[in-house]
Design goal:
CATH superfamily: Vaccinia Virus protein VP39
Shape: globular
CATH class: Alpha Beta
Helix content: 25-40%
CATH architecture: 3-Layer(aba) Sandwich
Structural class: alpha/beta
CATH topology: Rossmann fold
Distance between the termini: 45 Å
Number of strands: 8
Number of domains: 1
Largest sheet: 8 strands, mixed
Order of helices and strands: HHHEHEHEEHEEHEE
């Protein structure tokens, strides 16, 4: 395990023990002081799992409004904007959002510091495309069900939601943060008025290999 991931887990454990389970994101971004190597999920490039999804659907998805949940340092949001989407991207860490503004000073993306659990009410049923990658898997299990409902509520009538996460079976060890999710957990999106367009379960070629779920949802009209 990398030192960066060990540090993130330490901050997460301390925050949960103190009853402030979401505060560690800002603590981590602040502590690394602009050094992206200290952020275990900051690859400084487009998420390849989003890249292949976009490539497979080139020309078939109407580009309108998009929301990136837990946007990190902005690479995914920037790619969507470059393809013509009107993109809003948020993260709970103000330091992270300031970093995005410095990385992309001329960006058309609307970067905002916001808490998923206290998101602007005007975002409800607003976005034609919502992208959630790796946020649910770093939330404590007791917060995931609520988070799923909140993310689903961002999707407009007929809109799409793409979710990418680590995956596991119920018989697998749940492990540590980032926790692999169960398909049954992701079924919570179906209970919020979204249909599964495609569910993909595959092994990503990392070291060590990582099992991924990639799920394309659409809200019923």
């Amino acid at each position: 395990m990398s030192q960066e991931r060990k540090k993130a887990r330490q901050l997460d454990n301390e925050a949960v023990a103190d009853g402030r389970p979401l505060d560690w994101f800002e603590e981590l971004y602040s502590q690394v002081a602009g050094d992206e190597s200290g952020i275990p999920w900051a690859d400084m490039r487009l998420n390849p799992n989003l890249a292949t999804w976009l490539e497979d659907r080139r020309g078939s998805v109407t580009r309108q409004s998009a929301l990136v949940v837990g946007c990190g340092l902005g690479d995914d949001a920037e790619e969507l904007a470059s393809l013509g989407w009107d993109v809003t991207a948020f993260d709970i860490s103000p330091t992270c959002i300031d970093w995005c503004h410095r990385r992309f000073p001329d960006s058309s993306v609307n970067y905002l510091a916001a808490d998923l659990f206290d998101a602007p009410p005007e975002w409800q049923r607003t976005f034609d495309f919502v992208f959630e990658s790796y946020t649910l898997q770093v939330l404590p299990p007791d917060l995931r069900s609520s988070a799923i409902q909140l993310i689903a509520n961002f999707v407009s009538s007929g809109g799409r939601l793409l979710v990418i996460s680590r995956g596991r079976d119920a018989t697998d060890d749940p492990g540590q943060m980032p926790w692999p999710l169960l398909r049954e957990e992701l079924d919570g999106f179906r209970n919020c008025g979204l249909n599964v367009v495609r569910f993909e379960n595959y092994i990503e070629n990392e070291e060590p290999p990582v099992r991924r779920f990639r799920v394309d949802y659409q809200r019923r009209i």
